[in-house]
UniProtKB/TrEMBL annotation:
A Pfam family: NAD_binding_3
PROSITE patterns: ACT, HOMOSER_DHGENASE
Record-listed NADPH binding positions: 105
Keywords attached to this entry: Amino-acid biosynthesis, Methionine biosynthesis, NADP, Oxidoreductase, Threonine biosynthesis
EC annotation from Swiss-Prot or TrEMBL: 1.1.1.3
Location of the ACT domain: 355-429
GO molecular function list: homoserine dehydrogenase activity; NADP binding
Binding site residues for NADP(+): 9-16
Xref: PANTHER family: HOMOSERINE DEHYDROGENASE (PTHR43331:SF1)
Binding annotation for L-homoserine: 190
Pathway the protein acts in: Amino-acid biosynthesis; L-methionine biosynthesis via de novo pathway; L-homoserine from L-aspartate: step 3/3; Amino-acid biosynthesis; L-threonine biosynthesis; L-threonine from L-aspartate: step 3/5
Family, similarity comment: Belongs to the homoserine dehydrogenase family.
Record protein name field: Homoserine dehydrogenase
Length: 434
């Protein structure tokens, strides 16, 4: 059979990695796909360097549209990133009847609904395994492996950069900025690393995971997002003392009233597997009503792990080229006509336990006043400790039992206004699902 012909857009960390994987494992991949997969065109800005790497038989051009419009290209692989030119190129590829593979979660989180609908109308595939948790085959696991289940919730470490930063700070004592610079050097970070550290990248991925898990449209704008930039070293230390480790988690859960969709630093009990996931590794726990808990672990970022997922998608698309469109796996796991309009819950309705830290005047009555405000808002204290700070102040750390977030918000407003409270009240959520 004639080879399947691929056009690569972008030859950076993942684009370069994809070319390498296709070359290095060409024979093994062809045995699996049933046909050879051949890169025939590359769109790149650094044309001369890329030409040296890919050889004379591949068209290398700085005009990405030339790749998309190339008559021989069957599959367009978009690895440029962002949601401007990448969006135009993907739309153009679909309009021209070409299948698409992309690692671009920013694009799909914002424009996935429109892109998947256009592809569906044309009977085309838009494969995106690399877009969520890099090399871990989590899209395939949810979309295919767990189809017998009503998925109840999933929670995961789905940003390698932030997990790497937290680990390096903890183990090597690096500063936040040093650890971030390392993550950038290693190819983990987004072109704009604020997407990583502010939780936006994790939110992009979570919105895709929620669609795959619950059969709802992609709703990035409804994700509650908090990153790791507000985390203080002392919170990491206090959490350890209480038996927890702090990780940036993406969590989505189906409740009676709707679906929770949130990304924030979270205290995880140290005995849970997710708390030991370090460096750029990712891990996602998915709970289905039939299978129970399942856990997926692997490299969530970096050249070859991400390229591994891109190439797996290329093999999938190659295998499915001959299947008629009606019998292919749906983009978002559920048939397009069977999507649900379950609402996304307001953060106020989320139930969680909380870690609270505040600095107060160290004098009689302070603890009683704090406990009264919490009790007035139906927040019960699970444990508490106090550390002196200088001659007249103390830091108080509470762990609450489960409470409604709206109640916690109101209690915190009141506590913040108390005359003896001398710091901003830090609030972190504690995960009890895991
Ligand atoms: N680096 C990683 O670990 C992972 C990255 N991703 C995603 O993969 C995509 C690519 O990321 P990276 O390879 O890390 O980025 P990168 O910045 O290393 O590569 C992007 C490449 O696209 C090129 N480019 C920009 N505009 C172009 C244009 N008009 N025509 C042709 N080339 C153009 C740039 O010169 C650059 O070489 C992004 O969507 C990213 O979110 C997904 C999972 C992991
Ligand atoms: N910047 C991302 C790359 C993979 O998606 C991350 O750090 O996880
Ligand atoms: Na993946």
């Amino acid at each position: 059979m004639s080879p399947v012909k691929v056009g690569l857009l972008g030859f950076g960390v993942v684009g370069g990695g994809t070319f390498k994987v296709l070359a290095q494992n060409a024979e093994e991949i062809a045995r699996r796909a049933g046909r050879k997969i051949e890169v025939v065109a590359v769109g790149a800005l650094n044309v001369d360097t890329v030409r040296e790497l890919v050889g004379d038989n591949v068209l290398v051009t700085s005009d990405a549209y030339e790749v998309v419009r190339h008559p021989e290209v069957d599959i367009v692989v978009e690895l440029i990133g962002g949601d401007t030119i990448a969006r135009e190129l993907v739309n153009e590829a679909i309009a021209r009847g070409k299948h698409v593979v992309t690692a671009n979660k920013a694009l799909l989180a914002k424009h996935g609904n429109e892109i998947f609908a256009a592809a569906h109308d044309k009977g085309l595939m838009v494969a995106f395994e690399a877009a969520v948790a890099g090399g871990i085959p989590i899209v395939k696991a949810i979309r295919e492996g767990l189809t017998a289940n009503r998925i109840q919730w999933l929670a995961g470490i789905i940003n390698g950069t932030t997990n790497y930063i937290l680990s390096e700070m903890r183990f090597k004592g690096l500063s936040f900025n040093e650890a971030l610079a390392d993550a950038q050097r290693l190819g983990y970070a987004e072109a704009d690393p604020t997407f990583d550290i502010e939780g936006v990248d994790a939110a992009h991925k979570l919105s895709l995971l929620a669609s795959l898990a619950f059969g709802i449209p992609v709703q990035f704008s409804k994700v509650h997002i908090e990153g790791i930039t507000g985390l203080a070293k002392e919170d990491i230390a206090h959490a350890e003392r209480l038996g927890y480790r702090i990780k940036l988690l993406g969590i989505t859960r189906r409740c009676d009233q709707g679906i929770e969709l949130r990304v924030h630093p979270t205290l995880i009990p140290v005995e849970r597997l997710l708390s030991s996931v370090e460096g750029a590794m990712n891990a996602v726990q998915v709970n289905g009503d039939m299978v129970g808990p399942t856990l997926y672990y692997g490299q969530g970022a970096g050249e070859l792990p991400t390229a591994s997922a891109v190439v797996a998608d290329l093999v999938d698309v190659t295998r499915l080229l001959l299947a008629d469109p009606g019998h292919r796996v749906p983009h978002l796991a559920f048939q397009p006509g069977a999507m649900a309009d379950t609402p996304i819950l307001s953060m106020d309705d989320v139930i969680s336990s909380y870690y609270l830290r505040l600095r107060v005047d160290d004098r009689p009555g302070v603890l009683a006043d704090l406990a009264r405000v919490l009790a007035n808002h139906q927040i019960s204290i699970g444990s508490m400790f106090q550390e002196p700070h200088g001659p007249a102040d103390a830091d108080i750390i509470f762990l609450s039992h489960e409470a409604r977030e709206g109640n916690v918000n109101r209690a915190l407003e009141e506590i913040q206004a108390l005359p003896f409270v001398k710091s901003h009240v830090t609030r972190l959520r504690v995960e009890s699902l895991l």
